[in-house]
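Inputs:
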Amino acid sequence: MISLSLDETIRAVFGIQSVGMLISTAELIATGELLETHGLHSARQFMETPGVWQNRFVHKGLISLATWVRVLGSLALLIAAVSGMSLLLPLILLLLASLYISWVKKVGGDGADQMSLISLAAALPVLVLEQETGKHLFLVFLALQACLAYVTAGVAKVISPVWRSGDAIGRIVQTSNYGNAWSERLFQNSHVAGFIVCWSLMIWEIVFPLCLLGFEPLTIGILLVGCLFHIACAITMGLNDFFWAFAGTYPAVLFVAKNGFVASS
Amino acid sequence: MTPGMLVLAVVYGTWLLCTVAYQFPGRLQTRLGFFDLFGLLPSWSFFAPNPGTTDYRLIYRDFDQSDSQSDWREVTIYCPSPWRAIWNPTKHRSKAFSDICQSLFMTWNILGDDLTKMQLTWPYLSLLAFVSKEPQSEGYGRRQFAIVATSGYVDRTMTPLFVSAIHRL
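Outputs:
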């Protein structure tokens, strides 16, 4: 079994996740979406009651600052994770910026944003307190969040007639948003391919928690499938940040699979 | 385990339990969501149980003083790129648009097709503000927008879902 210490595992988690946060925030800066006065991300202005105190904290200067802090924080966290420097300050900056952006951005968030934010928020007390037990607890929490994410997704699919029939994947990739012409043709020409993909995905998601059992070939196999799945989603559906956010939890899963749920004294 | 670590374990455990509870639509999810200002309670049911199988598209047309109408034009939401596996900035706009449309249709159902009340809701106002930024033709001073659903990347079908009132620009 791949063997990482507590600190190495935490660095691996944030080394991977920080890449996704860096890309995602750079994308937001490149499009200027968050700063457009009447852009889609300014929907908040129509939700809030005028004069409420929160509105004082929502203006372009702060939003611009937060996005740049998030970019620089992601980069700093990546460098710290790789170089062995302290993760604490970059994580604090990144967390504060991410919380603010999440609060301001009422629409447009996705699962990758959520997983990254959860990782940052959950890690903060652990990095402040610097106790081995706390670090172990954090990795257990993150591994369980990953398992919960996949099992929930799998169960939600299994109860759906569209997914059980094998039609779901073909219908999703025929959209401009999450598909492309070649994948539409693939699943249009072969219902069997769609059926196999749908059921493979559902089964893999539901059995994901089995990787915590500690049986190395099973753990590695499930996580490898996960990497391939997220790469396929990035290529086919444009969900590029999901790979980094979710693969970033895999070091935690590996650690818990090897070391168990309880820290050894 | 020290008291501090015990507190941490309780926090993590509570967070996980709340996450589990949040996956089930209903009153508990609504109550938990009320307190979740920063989005720390995730929704993990990706593309299920009802996967998105259509694209929502935003179109608009303009009116002049004699009520003569321009052609319907589409606001660009989707710009797929061959590099989107690595770099996909347009996904932020398309996700925001999709979220607003979902809220629009939910609100429309609740209000029972009352367009007057609909014009005061945040999804409607967000889309109106967004579509009003599009260039206007000379002589046309009013605008109407609509949401249509399309499916099929190659052979496209189209279904109108919502048509707004006519607004002065």
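Remarks. Chain B has a mean pLDDT of 91. Residues 50 and 102 of chain B are 13 Å apart (CA to CA).
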